Amino acid sequence: MRSSDSSSISLSVPPEYSALVFHIVFHEPCIPPNTGNAIRMTAVTGTTLHLVEPLGFDLSDAKLRRAGLDYHDLAHVRVHPDWPSAVEHLQTYGSGRIYAFTTHTDQHFGQVGYAEGDALLFGTEPTGLPAHVLDDEAITAQVRIPMRPAVRSLNLSNSAAIAVYEAWRQHGYPGGV
């Protein structure tokens, strides 16, 4: 895995998230355009994107920049060196509730009542979340996005968008137009 170069992306996230409703967490993402798409989505929804290292790309990657279009300066992105650091941050500045999205559970994501500050956690593109993360005591619940049984999974950025919009919808889209 390549190390991240955060010099090309806005990382100036205020320590208090008063204007931000939800946290999106990508655990060790590998595909730059997925993260770029998520950066764009977090900019338009007012959420924060957390990236847990190691990343499979540099944050200066052209594909990441292109997918995020000109939304990089409008997005709140935070990079964490490892999973424990991300958990500590989310417990300090979020609600402390972390929902792990996985295909290995029967609970649908729409059955959850999301609260302000909740974190929506997604695994790496080819394999999903590792067992040690799914089993972590910090995980509030494992949830899934329904899909047809003959397919493996949804695209990472699409999954994150589906989840964010459901959580945001439950609160009446605050700050949205």
What does this structure look like?
Residues 22-165 form the tRNA/rRNA methyltransferase SpoU type domain. Belongs to the class IV-like SAM-binding methyltransferase superfamily. RNA methyltransferase TrmH family. TrmL subfamily. It is an enzyme of class 2 (transferase). This is Putative tRNA (cytidine(34)-2'-O)-methyltransferase. InterPro entries: Alpha/beta_knot_MTases (IPR029028), SpoU_MeTrfase (IPR001537), TrmL (IPR016914), tRNA_m1G_MTases_N (IPR029026). The protein is of the alpha/beta class and 177 residues long. It has one domain: Alpha/beta knot, CATH 3.40.1280. The protein is 29% helix and 16% strand. The protein has 5 helices and 6 strands, in the order βαβαβαββαβα. The chain has a 6-stranded parallel beta sheet with strand order 3-2-1-5-4-6, sandwiched between helices. β1, α1 and β2 form a beta-alpha-beta unit. The chain starts with 22 loop residues before the first strand and ends in a 7-residue tail after the last helix. 41% of the residues are buried. The model is unreliable at 1-19 (pLDDT under 50).
